[in-house]
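Researcher: Next entry in the queue.
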Amino acid sequence: MTSPLKIIYSCFLTNSGFTRASLGYIRSLMSLSHDVHINCIHKYPHGDSFTNKELNIIKNTCQLNSMHGDILIEHCIPHRWRESLTGQKRLCVAVAENEIIDPIWIERMNNRTHSIIYPGSWNKEIFEKSGVTRPGFVIPHFLDEDLWKDDNNDIKFFNKFSFCVIATWRDRKNWPLAFASFEKLADNYDFIVGIKTDKPQVLSDYVIKNHPTIFNRIVIEETELDDQGMVNFMKKFDCIANFSFGEAFCLPLLQGLFLGKPIVTTDIDGIRDYVNSDYASLIKSNGTISKDKMDHYRQFRDRIWPYFDVEESCRALSEIIEKYNSFKSNIQKDRYKLLERFGLISSNKNAYWDPVLKL
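Model: Structure for this entry, 359 residues:
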């Protein structure tokens, strides 16, 4: 274990998965007795999805002015790195949802960092394949084992099978596939779909216009939820579903596994470190699709994405219903392995940070 260091951690503080991932890293570093100071990229925290413990961390460590430390960690895309922040060593957290990386990112990472942190093995592969030469280390995102835990309560909240989808209202999340698949599934099964998104009214209007026959099957959670609220919400449902074109990690799926929930998901590379067919019904790709833009993000312009059709997606949804008990049993068998690898408490004894901070 390294001696305590002053670490400047630059990140977003919003109602987002990016923030959840950042706070997991920050709490892990703090548990190792490092002196961590948060620099909020957009100056002030936004949203109300923080637990009291997280609010205390933000209140006690967040600063807005120029900062210097032994280590500077930038948890954002290179275009958002801040010149007012300095460290004897500069690290960055590198994530991407597509295998083609912006060359400007590669240049800045090679010229301005000492080493790179990747949340998963696929991210490390694609960045290094794209030209990153700085030393790279895989440090997975962490979940609080004391909060994200399966209580083995088999009492059903709904009297029918239930899916849970947690995703922002973005093109990359592939909502048209989700609703078309559920619409087809409704021909043979009775079910409920719980949804948590950042634009609930837009989503509701979309379903009413394009898939009105399944609107009465959908339950939309409009309240902003902290982690405890998310645990309570997700526990109501039988499984967690993801239809995305691409993910760098996808925290909701890992959260679902920690809660003992089987998952159904598109078979994408970013989730492969913790997802396998023993407890996930995988929607296989049927070719590729080219998109000249995606969500108006520069890094997604003119990219090739995996294509997923409704028939295959519906097959996977059907499989999770028919083989639910088998999937759930397999999660219980692997639960210890998941906690050991991705648990916040376990991050200490796994010494994930030692090679990064010692370099």
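Model: The mean pLDDT is 94.
Researcher: Noted, moving on.
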